[in-house]
Here is the input.
Amino acid sequence: MSDLAGSDPECPCQSVDAAEAAEGALAAPVIEELRAGSHFDISLRRCRCGADWLAVFTELIDFGGGDDSQAWTLVPLTVAAASRLRAVRPVTEGDLVACLGQVRHIMRVWPRGGTLGVSWAEGPLIVLPHD
Here is the structure.
């Protein structure tokens, strides 16, 4: 993890607890929109501790009941990965997988009819269905 930006172990985004790290990452300001959309959005965020995060938002509209499924996939980025993503426009789902490969990331998912789940995952980045 030494090539990850940010080194403040007291910062919430650096927590081993997935919910706390997700909250910290989502509180970080957006420094660059890689793909803007209301149901599929990809941005780079930078925490106050200097950590860079990839944030992928997906939403699947429930036209019948208004109970939309929403998810955030959050990836703590290395400097090299952030540079690779910045070089691609517009960023597609395939670009995310190609640029990142196997990564440790947080899945923050609120499925239709379900409850919020937040957990760390490891492997290829998964982009959930969206409109």
Remarks:
- The helical segments are 18-27, 79-86, 93-100.
- The chain has one domain: 12-124.
